[in-house]
Amino acid sequence: MAEQVLDRIKQVVGPNGWLEEPRDIEPYEVETRGLYHGKTALVVRPGSTEEVATVVRLCAEAGLPIVPQGGNTGLCGGGVPDEDGRNIVLALGRMNKVRSIDPANFTITVEAGVILADIQRIAAEHDRLFPLSLGAEGSCQIGGNLSTNAGGVQVLRYGNTRELTLGLEVVLPDGRIWNGLRTLRKDNTGYDLKQLFVGAEGTLGIITAATLRLYPKPRATATAFVALPDTDAVMSLFAQARAATGDQLTAFELIPRIGLEMAMKHVNGVVDPLEQPYETYALIEVSTASPHGDVGATLEGLLAEAFEAGTVVDGTIAASGAQRDAFWLIREGMVEGQRFEGGSIKHDIAVPVASVAEFLKTATAAVTERLPGIRPVAFGHCGDGNIHFNLSQPAGADKDTFLARWEEFNDIVHGIVAGLNGSISAEHGIGRLKCQELTHYKAPIELELMARVKQALDPKHIMNPGKVVAEAAFNALKGE
C-alpha cells in the first residue's frame, strides 16, 4: 500500500519532483544544528499548489504522515522527520515564484519557497521595504518564516511575521486548497483564519503562498554601538530611545562582551569598535522614510543625554555604510562564534520588557551556581523582551557531557521565565525540541484548545506529527 502511494506521488510531481537516494535525501533528514537525524521514505519537491494538494490528498487517503520543510534552517526540529521513516518530507523549494508585486498597495505575493533575501531584494527594486531580517535570510524560505512566525532584528518597528502577513494560500490536511490571498488591511467578516496557520509549523496545513506587507524604503539610517555600565542601564536607554525617536527606532540589540570576544576570535572582519573593553553593549538603529528626516541628529541627541545621565559610558555612531555593516557583523558574528567554543545550550525566551534586567541577573546567577565556569552569552532584541540566553560550556569541558545537561538547564532557565510570566519560545517555534516541555508551561485549557483545533483540521494527524502539540493533549480528548 505504501509503495503504491509513493509511486503515485512520484507520478504527480514528475521526475524532477522527488528524491529517494540516501545521499540525496540526507540533507532533508538532519536538523541544522545536528540535534535530530530523522528518516524519510521520500523527499517530494512539488512545483505547484495543485501538485501539493494532490500529494496531500494521496497521503490523507493512505494515512501517510507529511513533514513540510522550507530551507531547513529552523532551530527546534520542526522541519525534520522522526526516526521511523514512515513519512514523506514535502520540500517547497521549487515553489519559488513571485506571483505579483503591487508597490502602490505596498504588497507582494510570493510562493512559499521564495528565499527571504530575494523578497527583500525584489521589494527594494520597487523602492519598497520588506522588513523581516534574520541571520539565515540568505537560505531560509518565507514558508518556513511564516510557519514559525519568525521575528528578526526589526521586530521593534515592524512586528513579527504574523504582523507582516495579509493573506495566505494553504493546502488543508484533506488536500483542499484555501485561497486566502487577500490584500485587505481591514476584513471583519469572521475568524481571521490566516492566523491559525502562521506559527503552526505545518501542523494544520501547508502554506503554499502568502501576500505580505511592504513599507516605504528608508531614506536615512543612523546606527550606534554603545557601552553601558550594566543591564539596568540597557533597559533605561531603551526607554529613552523609544521616547526620543518614536517609530524611528528600528533595532535595539543587547550584546555582551563575551559574545563580542567570541565573534572577534572566530569570525573574519569582526573588530572591537571601542578603544577599551566593557561588559555590556547595545546596538541601536534608527531610520526614516522621509527625505527630510535627520535621524543622525536624533541619535546624537539621544546619546548626548544618555552620556550626561551616565546611562552610556562610551560609544560611536557609524560614519559610513561600511562601519554600520561592521557593527551588524558583530551581532551576527556572535551566533557563528559560539559554534567554535564547544557545546552551547540554547534558550530563545521572552519576558515582559520591564523584567529583562531581572531575568538576566537571576538566570545568570542560577546557571553559574549550578555549574561554575559556564559561560552565559545573553543577547538579542531586548527591546521586545526577547533574549537569546545561550550557555557555552566551561572552557576545556567535554562537549557531550555538557550537552547531556540540556534539560537540566532548560528547567532552570524556563522556570525563571515562567515566574516572570514569560514565554519559553519567542521566535524559534516549538517543533520537536520543546513539544513535551510546552505541556509544563501552557495552561491546561490552552493545551486543550490547541489540540481541539488540530483535531478539527487534521483528524488523521498526518500533518507534521509530533511537533508543537504533544500526543498527551490528544489522548486527553479521547477520554471525554
Automatic annotation (TrEMBL):
Residues 36-217 form the FAD-binding PCMH-type domain. SUPFAM superfamilies: FAD-binding/transporter-associated domain-like, FAD-linked oxidases, C-terminal domain. One of its GO terms (biological process) is respiratory electron transport chain. Transmembrane segments: none annotated. Keywords: FAD, Flavoprotein. Coiled coil: none annotated. InterPro entries: FAD-bd_oxidored_4_C, FAD-bd_PCMH, FAD-bd_PCMH-like_sf, FAD-bd_PCMH_sub1, FAD-bd_PCMH_sub2, FAD-linked_Oxase-like_C, FAD-oxidored/transferase_4, Oxid_FAD_bind_N. Pfam families: FAD-oxidase_C (PF02913), FAD_binding_4 (PF01565). One of its GO terms (molecular function) is catalytic activity. Its cofactor is FAD. It comes from the Bacteria. PROSITE patterns: FAD_PCMH. Belongs to the FAD-binding oxidoreductase/transferase type 4 family. This is D-2-hydroxyacid dehydrogenase. It comes from Aliidongia dinghuensis. The lineage of its organism: Bacteria, Pseudomonadati, Pseudomonadota, Alphaproteobacteria, Rhodospirillales.
